Every structure is written in C-alpha cells, then in structure tokens.
C-alpha cells in the first residue's frame, strides 16, 4: 500500500484536539482524515465501511464510551488495523491500556502524551509503515503427534544456541540451547509449534533427551577445540514426573564427558506444579549431582518467592518483559531492581533476558547484572557458527571497549 493512502481515523471528544491532530496528519502527508468525537459514531463508521481505517488515533478517557471499551468493541468488529493511544493520562495508565489492547490481539504502535508533537506522531506512524511492508499474516502449521514422533526418531530436531555474556567484561560465558525442527518441507519450525504436542502426547522425555544429547555432544566438540562454555537446556515440567529422568541426564553427561557444573537446567517458573514433591526431589537430586538449576522467566508467575524458598536454584533469569525498555519505564526499573536485589541477597547469579538494544545493554551493565542475553547481543545460531561469532564479538568489544552490536 502507498504510505500516503493509509486510511486514518482520529477519535477524541475534544474538538480542538481533533482539529490539531487532523492538521498534523495532513502536514505529514496523510489525507483525508476521518474524525469522530465519540466511540459509538466511530464504531458505526467502521462497521459500515467497505474500507475501514488502517490506523486509529484513540483517546483513552472519553465520556459515555472510553477508549478501553472502544477497543473491546473493535475486537468484536474483527478490526485488523493498528491503534495509537493519544491521551493526557499518566504513563502507567497508558501502559496499562497498551497491555489491555495487546491482550485483545489488537496491534498497538505505541502511545503519545498530550500535547502531541508532529515528530512523535510521525515516528509512530512510521512503525505502521514498517509493519505494513514486512508483516506476513500466516497461519501457523498444526502438527500431529505422529509427525512430532517421527521428527524425534528421525533426527530432524536441531539445536540452536544463543550466547550469554557478562556485561562487566564482555566475556561470552555460556549459551542457551533452543531446539528447532528442520522440517523436510516446511523449513525451520519453532518450538511453540511442537513442544505442546510433545507434552500432550507423552513425547516430551524423548524430545528432551534428543535436545540434551545434542547439547552434550556440542559441548564436547567446543571443548575439544579449546572453547569452554556453560550450556543451558530448558526442561519441561513433564520431565519432572519420573525419577528415571535424573538417571538419564547423569548417564548422558557421563557418556559425553561433560562436567555437570558446566550444564544449567532451566525450569520456567510459571510451569512449576502445585504438588512439588516429585519435581522437588528430581531437581534437588540433579543439584546434588552438581548440575546447575535456573529459574527461567522470573517475575511472571504467581509463586516465585515460594519456589525460590523451596528449590536450590543457582541462577535467576529476569523475564524479558521486565528488561526491554526498562531505562525509559519507571515501573519496570523498580521491578528489575527488586528482582536483582532479591537474587543477590540469595546468592544467585542473575541473567537479564530480552536485551534488545544499546539502552537495555547499558542499563543491565550499569546495574551490575551478572549476565545478559538477547537479540542485541546475538540471535540463536547453529553450534558450528558460534566460534566465529565469538571471535567477531571479542574483536568488536576490545576495539570499542563496549558492546557495539
């Protein structure tokens, strides 16, 4: 679509604000603009239009129908465009409104505080342009249990590895193992399309064994080439229902000559069971064998403190939702600092997930976080590519004195 042909609607109960936003949009090259001073009229226009707007500038606080209710009605109309929130409400209210809209699967480009500036408005509309050019609305392929079973037995699962770096030194100290399915016809399939199938059909132990086997073998290859890295592997809670799981992990480590302390087993805290007896015994036995234990995605579950109390974790991974954008968000900063302080008090190493840009990197480094991980550092990659990436990273770090990814 030609950018100048974007259909934009402005919804605000203040006549002056409607005129101001319309004037700004016209000056930015977008016309004509539809304007509405109440939610009901806007919904009627959208429902009755053969070409509804691609983008709606929406005030949150309006009489009769506020912006939050309007978003709910948009969902009922199957609105497929994007929204920019424009409001005089405080930052926390705007963030809550954004989160609600995204929970409804509505695309939100961001929010603007009144008074709006042309530069700020232009920047957010620019996000829509990027999405419209690159977004591919595809339906994810659904795979059955037999297909996943065949993929496991046929060796179609492959491991990718995402580096974990010490912000204070730039040293690459480890990697997280992330499984992929190299499908013969569909290409690279991501785990959200097959892990749940494996869990639902009793295949998760075989899948986890394949991932562990690949990770242990890769560790051995790196070690033989002089590269020593701690390797993290994600566990499913369904792995922690049988005592034989401990024996399987220990036997694989012995087979490949991997020191247990060089392996970190990650457990997502939102998955932890209410009945901890068997998982607790398995995890504690693994810890007794000197395997490291990590509590993943910390902060997004309901019983994090109880889990930290009950399970002998070595590492705490702060969820990416509390990391990316943290330097510009007072609420996120408070939550990040609380997680970091708690982990330090308990003697745990802290990993900041979701380091996506220079600002995130600078923040976690200045806060004294032990380890950083995210796309700003590197995307997951095949094990064969990691040694060259590390050499490139080290050269860039030494030359600049800081991360310049």
What is the string of SSEs from the N terminus onward? Answer: EHEHEHEHEHHEEEHHEHEHEHEHEHEEH
The CATH first-level class of the largest domain comes to Alpha Beta
Residues in helix, %: 40-55%
* Major beta-sheet overview: 10 strands, mixed
Uncertain ranges: 133-138
- Cα(first) to Cα(last) distance is 32 Å
Question: CATH homologous superfamily name of the largest domain?
Answer: EAL domain
Number of strands: 15
Radius of gyration, in Å, reads 25 Å
Shape: elongated
SS field, number of helical segments: 14
CATH topology-level fold name of the largest domain: TIM Barrel
| CATH architectural grouping of the largest domain | Alpha-Beta Barrel
Q: For the residues shown, what is the average pLDDT?
A: 90
Strand content: 15-25%
Structural class: alpha/beta
Q: How many structural domains? A: 2
Question: What does this entry look like structurally?
Answer:
- The protein is an alpha/beta fold and 405 residues long.
- The protein folds into two domains: 3-134, 3-Layer(aba) Sandwich (Rossmann fold); 145-400, Alpha-Beta Barrel (TIM Barrel).
- The chain is 42% helix and 20% strand.
- Strands 6, 7, 8, 9, 10, 11, 12, 13, 14 and 15 form a ten-stranded mixed sheet that branches.
- Helix 13 links the parallel strand 13 (349-352) and strand 14 (371-372).
List the helices and strands and how they pair.
Elements: E1 8-11, H1 15-27, E2 33-36, H2 39-47, E3 55-58, H3 67-76, E4 82-87, H4 91-103, E5 107-113, H5 118-134, H6 145-153, E6 157-165, E7 172-183, E8 187-189, H7 195-200, H8 204-224, E9 230-235, H9 244-256, E10 263-268, H10 277-288, E11 292-298, H11 304-310, E12 315-318, H12 330-345, E13 349-352, H13 358-366, E14 371-372, E15 381-382, H14 386-400
Parallel strand pairs: 1-2, 1-3, 3-4, 4-5, 7-9, 9-10, 10-11, 11-12, 12-13, 13-14
Antiparallel strand pairs: 6-7, 6-15, 7-8
